[in-house]
Write a structure and sequence with these properties.
Order of helices and strands: EHEEEHEHEHEHEHEHEHEHEHEHEHHH
Radius of gyration: 21 Å
Strand order of the largest sheet: 3-4-2-1-5-6-7-8
Largest sheet: 8 strands, mixed
Number of helices: 14
Length: about 375
């Protein structure tokens, strides 16, 4: 990340939980902000991230040149995102920024505030996915809040970024609103030998099938556990990740799982890197995605990946991974069984994955496109 003369824009980012995220609060939105904000600083911008209180970021007030400001957060379930976004929006509105960048649909609920009080300010949104479709928001206040947030983005945002062609099509068909497609990026990682995963979980290279991500229903984990239950293999299934207000779902999965299914809980650092580095196959059986960062990460480690055929996943992997029919347990089991009996096929996918994905998606390129996006939105 070299210094570039793009002018000094003052940018506020909100809608994430915390940056950097050092616990189970780290999700795809946090990864995006954590990767993007420091690169914008290196390109000459002043960036401030408004973090929720109560999320672990190591007590930092600055991260790689990014200013970090905590905002009040009501920690009751369903209110944390709403309250933190409100206070962040108010602070950003009166903070003399050139750009206020909202991340995710829910926080956009408050986009009317800068629209009223600083009409000359550039207010933009990144829609990470159609969040009101997620199972945990299907009913109640959360679903209404997110749907209104989506409509507020359509009405008040100077410009909207989307992460997939499918979401771009959704906004055009639903609202006749044009959006800008800027996908997520990935960085080429360091491959790690199996040490901590052997000590903690008894795992060795190529002796397990991996899922790594949030433990939520829309990730298709019911299908994966059921499909794995019918496999003829001695390979273990590892489900790595923390829940997201979905503890009951995690309990359900553990009841479904057999003795060869290992639940690691939230993983970070070397442990996470080792899990990616030594998997035989990585599986993402999602019903719903925005843009699957975990899939990009898995491929960047040179994994043979198996994913559902939803557009958001299929357009990422092209022909460099195995695709099965969404929600089809039988098809998923058949694909996994074939791979478990064909080391040569697995190696072929592994050999082509990292170069393909790291060339196709780059955080540095995402940053350059974002700067151009800001200037377009301001212009």
């Amino acid at each position: 990340m070299g210094k570039q003369k793009n002018g000094s824009l003052k940018i506020a980012m909100l809608g994430h939980k915390t940056v950097p995220a050092m616990d189970s609060s780290r999700g795809s939105i946090e990864v995006v902000v954590e990767e993007l904000a420091p690169r914008l600083v290196d390109m000459g911008c002043e960036v401030t991230c408004y973090n929720r209180t109560g999320c672990d970021n190591g007590g930092l007030s600055e991260y790689k040149g990014v200013k970090l400001i905590p905002v009040p957060t009501f920690k009751r379930k369903g209110l944390a995102a709403m309250t933190s976004s409100f206070f962040a929006t108010v602070k950003a509105t009166f903070g003399h920024y050139d750009v206020i960048h909202f991340h995710a649909e829910g926080p956009c609920f408050w986009m009317w505030i800068p629209s009223i009080f600083c009409k000359k300010r550039c207010v933009v949104a990144t829609i990470h996915g159609i969040d009101h479709r997620r199972e945990k928001w299907h009913a109640g206040l959360g679903s209404h809040y997110i749907k209104i947030g989506e409509k507020m983005a359509v009405k008040h945002a100077s410009e909207i970024i989307v992460l997939s062609k499918g979401v771009q099509e959704y906004f055009w068909k639903t609202y006749k609103r044009k959006t800008v497609f800027i996908p997520n990026g990935v960085s080429r990682p360091q491959i790690r030998e199996a040490k901590e995963i052997t000590e903690k979980f008894g795992l060795k290279k190529d002796d397990y099938i991996l899922f790594l991500g949030r433990i939520v229903p829309e990730k298709g984990l019911r299908y994966l556990v059921e499909a794995y239950g019918g496999l003829r293999t001695d390979k273990k299934l590892v489900i790595a990740g923390g829940s997201s207000d979905t503890d009951e779902f995690t309990v359900e999965l553990k009841k479904m799982a057999g003795e060869n299914v290992i639940f690691t809980g939230f993983v970070a650092g070397r442990l996470r890197e080792e899990l990616y580095s030594n998997a035989y196959v990585y599986v993402l059986p999602s019903d719903l995605e925005g843009m699957p960062l975990s899939l990009l990460e898995a491929m960047s480690y040179g994994n043979c990946c198996v994913t559902s055929d939803i557009e958001e996943c299929a357009e990422v992997v092209e022909d460099k991974a195995v695709v099965f029919q969404k929600s089809d347990v039988g098809d998923l089991r058949e694909k996994l069984q074939e791979l478990c009996g064909d080391d040569a096929a697995v190696k072929k996918y592994k050999d082509g994955a990292a170069d393909f994905i790291c060339t196709k998606y780059s955080w540095d390129e995402v940053s350059r496109k974002t700067i151009k996006f800001y200037r377009r939105a301001m212009g």
